[in-house]
Design goal:
By secondary structure, the protein is mainly beta. The chain is 0% helix and 31% strand.
Length: 67
């Protein structure tokens, strides 16, 4: 039985470029490889976003619409 078994696979983390909302009231962020334009606006509050980095799990984007 596999009940209670944990995933033994190691989570791979790396420095990832992200865009963070500049609004104090919003906590939204987007991975750089998932953005919809060169300089994205926040999808939640439409404020400007700034580029930064964060240690995140690797998530590849296989979309054909990727910029």
């Amino acid at each position: 039985m596999a009940f209670g078994r944990r995933n033994e696979e190691e989570v791979k983390l790396e420095d990832t470029k992200i865009w963070v909302c500049t609004s104090d009231k919003c906590k939204c962020w987007i991975r750089d490889n998932f953005k919809s334009s060169d300089v994205p606006l926040c999808p939640i509050c439409k404020s400007e976003m700034t580029l930064t980095t964060r240690q995140l799990q690797v998530v590849p984007n296989h979309s054909k619409n990727f910029m």
